[in-house]
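Sequence and structure are no longer studied apart. To make this concrete, we show below a single chain and its fold as tokens.
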Amino acid sequence: MKLIKFVHKVNYIFTLFFDDKKHKEIDLQKLIGKHVSVDELTTAYINTEWGCLEFNAGRVDIEPKTLYHYTFSDT
């Protein structure tokens, strides 16, 4: 399971696209808000080797399985 694409909408809202063809718009504030400020969201990129969403030159990353579970869980 890897993240293959994302679109940053506004604030912590991202649309995430995974390699199983699923995608969803999600608010990541609860997941990364303590570690990534609104101003730092523009540093987002995908580590193509691992499929992670990373921020701040890799100092903050979200493992793809964690990101997928957070995105598609009902919680």
Q: What stands out?
A: The chain has one domain: 3-72. The chain has a mean pLDDT of 94. The first strand starts at residue 3 and ends at 10.
